[in-house]
Specification:
alpha/beta, TIM Barrel, 8-stranded parallel β-barrel, about 45% helix, binds 3-methyl-2-oxobutanoic acid
Length: about 290
C-alpha cells in the first residue's frame, strides 16, 4: 500500500477528485484490471482509477465479445481487484443485460458492486437512453461513469467495432448523450472510438472528465486495456500502444521452466524442504505400511 509522508495509507482517489483533476487540467490515467495481481501492479504504477472492464470477456474468458459476460463474472473479478487496490478508485463495468431490462434490475445489480464487491463506482454504456437510470443510481449513492461512442455491448447494432460520431448528426447526438449523462449525475464519461475533434469539443462542453479510448489526446484522461498495454495478446487495436511484450517475457520464462523440469534442473535444494532426521528414521522403520501378502 502506498503511504503518505506521515506514514498513513494514501487516501482513496474519489470521483470528486477526478472532477477536480479535470478542473485543474491534470490528466487522468485509467487502466483495466481483472484480478488481484493486476490490481496491485497497476496501482503501484500510479493509476488514478482501475476499471474492471467487461472486456474481461475477451481478455480473460476467451469470448469474442463482451455479450456473454455475467454479473457473477464481474462480481468475482471486481472483488479480486478491490482486494488488491487500496488507493485507486475501483470502477466496475455493468455487464450486458444487467441494467437494460428494468430500472429495478439496474439499481439492484449496481448496488451489488459496491456492497458485495468493494467497488466505489460502476460504469454502464449508453447516453440519453440510460440517463434516468444513471440519475436514480446516483440518487441511491452509486457513482456512475457513462460510456458513449462505440459501446461494445451494442456491437450487433453498430455492425462492428467502428468509429462513431463521424457525421454532424451523430456527432450532435453524442454531445447530447454526454450532456444528458452529466445532467443525470454521472461523474465521468468514457468516449470510445470517437474522432479526436469531436472528443475535444465534448471535453470542452462538460465539467465532468472525459476518459478516452481511441478518442485522441483532447480527452481529460485515457483508459486502456491491461492486455493491450502489456503486449499480452496478438492483436493490437489502433488506439493502443504496446508498452512491453509481456507475452513474450512470460513465454520465455515458462519455456525455461519446462526445460528445467524435463532436465531435472528444477527444483534444487533452494526450493526444497526436508524432514527431521528422527522422523526419517521412524518412517523408514515402519514403511511400507502394506504387508508383503497384502
Ligand atoms: O470493458 C472495458 O475494458 C471498457 C473499456 C474499453 C473502456 O469498457
Amino acid at each position: 500500500m502506498s503511504a503518505t509522508p506521515a506514514g498513513r495509507p494514501a487516501a482513496r482517489v474519489t470521483t470528486t477528485d477526478l472532477i477536480a483533476m479535470k478542473a485543474s487540467g491534470e490528466r487522468i490515467a485509467v487502466i483495466t484490471a481483472y484480478d488481484v495481481s493486476g490490481a496491485r501492479l497497476v496501482e503501484a504504477a500510479g493509476v488514478d482509477a482501475i476499471l474492471v472492464g467487461d472486456s474481461l470477456g475477451m481478455t480473460v474468458l476467451g469470448y469474442d465479445s463482451t455479450l456473454p459476460v455475467t454479473m457473477d463474472d464481474m462480481l468475482r473479478a471486481t472483488a479480486a481487484v478491490s482486494r488488491g487496490a487500496k488507493r485507486a478508485l475501483v470502477i466496475a463495468d455493468m455487464p450486458f443485460m444487467s441494467y437494460q431490462a428494468s430500472v429495478e434490475d439496474a439499481l439492484r445489480n449496481a448496488g451489488r458492486f459496491l456492497a458485495e464487491a468493494g467497488a466505489q463506482a460502476v460504469k454502464l454504456e449508453g447516453g440519453m437512453a440510460v440517463a434516468d437510470t444513471v440519475g436514480l443510481m446516483t440518487d441511491a449513492g452509486i457513482p456512475v461513469m457513462g460510456h458513449v461512442g462505440l459501446t461494445p455491448q451494442s456491437v450487433n447494432v453498430f455492425g462492428g467495432y467502428k468509429l462513431q460520431g463521424r457525421d454532424s448528426a451523430s456527432a450532435i447526438r453524442l454531445v447530447e448523450d454526454c450532456l444528458a449523462l452529466e445532467a443525470a449525475g454521472a461523474f465521468a464519461v468514457v468516449l470510445e472510438l470517437v474522432p479526436a475533434e469531436l472528443a475535444q469539443m465534448v471535453s470542452e462542453e462538460l465539467t465532468i472528465p472525459t476518459i478516452g479510448i481511441g478518442a485522441g489526446a483532447g480527452c481529460d484522461g485515457q483508459v486502456q486495456v491491461y492486455h493491450d498495454v502489456l503486449g499480452l495478446g496478438d492483436f493490437t487495436p489502433k488506439h493502443a500502444r504496446r508498452y512491453t511484450e509481456a507475452g513474450a517475457v512470460i513465454g520465455k520464462a515458462v519455456s525455461a521452466y519446462v526445460d528445467d523440469v524435463r532436465s531435472g534442473a528444477f527444483p534444487t535444494e533452494k526450493q526444497t524442504s526436508h524432514l527431521a532426521a528422527d522422523v526419517v528414521a521412524e518412517l523408514e522403520r515402519i514403511l511400507p505400511l502394506t504387508d508383503e501378502e497384502g
